[in-house]
């Protein structure tokens, strides 16, 4: 009976060490897999209750696999700006998208995201990164996301281009104090409408008396053809009064607003505030070189022409910002981080993704850097937590244990044969 038990015990050891070798093999094969979490074999003794003190009932050994999902891997730089790594706890929310709009959600540390044919940031295995839409200030459009059902695929092609209507002009210039009564000088100003189309208007200054001028605003015209009117300017006249030191003392009416209607581009009516007293400065001094004209010091007009999408940036907080070739940028998405009470109990699936279990607890969506949620590193990936040297050490131990267990089987078998020969 004891010899049979010895063989069964040795066979359990062979089986346990075989599984350990399989785990080691799996780890080594995934040593270069982004975001992979190494698995270790955990051995437990199996004890057979012994009811007779004069004999020993051998037990055996069992093995279970333990994956340290919460272990942080080394963060390595990447040349792809949309490759992401989590520095800290949590997981990216990803999904397999169905043709009917359905989504099968999963969680991963694999941040090898790049734009697919539809513009969605996805892994090589087809899992799409999920996030929520934000306004230009980075605030959620539909409130805070508490459920993965509130998320949507991050589509970097959602905005193909962007323009910005001009809304403010800051002007610093000098009017000629020695101009004669009723002399006029002018200054051309270019601005952009809501469609990114450029227009030009002329600010005309007429001297109406000592230290007083009147400013009128011309129609909007094509910057390349001043005879082509592209919008009607408001007919307001602004009275400018300067003090004896050449400083602008009053403007009436105030503030100065340049308004244009009927823009031929089909854009919204334009309204621009002209700053000539605070950040800007309009003065009255003697004309330079005797030339009666506006001396322009600086002219700053906001807004931008239509620009095409060029790239995307993702910051530590998970804010996804689209960049355009006109210098503008626009916040379009926010990437949340999913955390679990017991991440080591998550169920591992192929393609390096995980599903929640009863033991792991349900997900909690957080902003990157909030609580135990890690920060997001762009142009980076998290390397595998597999240590090749450690795996080789485990392999040698497993091989030695397997050989020893097989020797027990051989020895027990020899002893049984000896016993059978004696009986015969």
Strand content: 35-45%
Give the fraction of residues assigned to helices: 10-25%
Low-confidence runs (pLDDT<50, min 5 residues)? none
Measured between the Cα atoms of the first and last residue, the distance is 19 Å
Q: Helix tally?
A: 2
Structural class: alpha+beta
Question: Which word captures the global form?
Answer: rod-shaped
Oligomeric state of the chains in view: single chain
In total, the number of strands is 32
Main sheet properties: 10 strands, antiparallel
Radius of gyration: 38 Å
Mean pLDDT: 90
Task: Please name the defining characteristics of this protein.
about 425 residues; alpha+beta; 2 helices; 32 strands; rod-shaped
Secondary-structure blueprint:
Blueprint: H1 2-29, E1 39-46, E2 60-67, E3 75-77, E4 84-87, E5 92-97, E6 103-108, E7 114-115, E8 121-122, E9 128-133, E10 152-153, E11 161-164, E12 168-176, E13 184-192, E14 198-209, E15 212-217, E16 220-222, E17 225-233, E18 237-242, E19 248-252, E20 256-261, E21 270-275, E22 281-285, E23 295-301, E24 304-314, E25 319-324, E26 329-334, E27 336-339, E28 347-349, E29 353-355, E30 364-367, E31 375-378, E32 380-382, H2 388-423
Parallel strand pairs: 12-21, 12-22
Antiparallel strand pairs: 1-2, 3-32, 4-31, 5-6, 5-9, 6-29, 7-8, 9-10, 9-26, 11-24, 12-23, 13-14, 14-15, 15-18, 16-17, 17-20, 18-19, 20-21, 24-25, 25-26, 27-30, 28-29
Helix pairs in contact: 1-2
Please tell me about this protein's structure:
The chain is α+β, with helices and mostly antiparallel strands. Helix content is 15%, strand content 42%. It contains 2 helices and 32 strands. The chain is rod-shaped, with a radius of gyration of 38 Å. The two termini are 19 Å apart. The model has no long low-confidence stretch (mean pLDDT 90).
